[in-house]
Design goal:
single chain; 177 residues; alpha+beta; Lipocalin; 8-stranded antiparallel β-barrel; 3 helices; elongated
């Protein structure tokens, strides 16, 4: 092989090594919002904006909640007020035997339970997530779409800010392992 061909081949080696070194030094790509949202979240705070600042939303003081995003456009939410898990139905297992007071109390207790299944779409440019409710604990909310502005803080905390309604609210969710 003539010397010029050998030199040309050798001159490609440093360029190739440099390219491989640069590729090896690149930082791994950051996870997408979709990847960060995927999983189960536990409600940590539910607050409403008051004249004096953000205060705990009275309906959920001491309550709990869970939010699940499956990463494929499906989600589920369940929020209950304090004491909901300790509610007990009257001993009568036949509705015909319940008093009007027992029926009224059961209905009020059931309305405190807030849950729905939804499909969701992300608008990552505007940090908006739209939930289209497929089913809901309140029949009047079936099929309703709602929007939340979202803020992800690392991979373990998520603020949601509902955009509908007259009073600004925010919910802080912490990732469950």
């Amino acid at each position: 092989m003539p010397r010029t061909n050998r030199l040309r081949k050798i001159s490609y080696v440093p360029a190739l090594l440099s390219a491989l070194m640069l590729l090896g030094c690149q930082q791994p790509s950051s996870p997408s919002d979709e990847e960060l949202l995927r999983g189960m979240w536990k409600l940590s705070k539910f607050e409403v904006l008051h004249d004096s600042g953000w205060i705990t939303f009275p309906w959920n003081a001491g309550g709990t909640g869970y939010l699940i995003y499956d990463g494929r456009g499906h989600g589920s939410l369940h929020i209950t007020p304090a004491g909901y898990s300790e509610l007990r139905w009257p001993e009568n297992d036949s509705l015909e035997k319940w008093t009007i007071h027992e029926l009224r109390e059961a209905f009020i207790d059931l309305r405190k339970n807030y849950n729905y299944m939804a499909s969701y779409q992300l608008d990552t440019a505007n940090k908006i997530i739209t939930h289209t409710r497929l089913s809901h604990s309140r029949p009047e909310d079936w099929g309703v779409s709602v929007q939340r502005r979202y803020e992800l803080h690392g991979s373990d905390s998520l603020w949601l800010f509902p955009l509908e309604g007259d009073h600004p609210r925010r919910l802080l969710w912490i990732r469950e392992n």
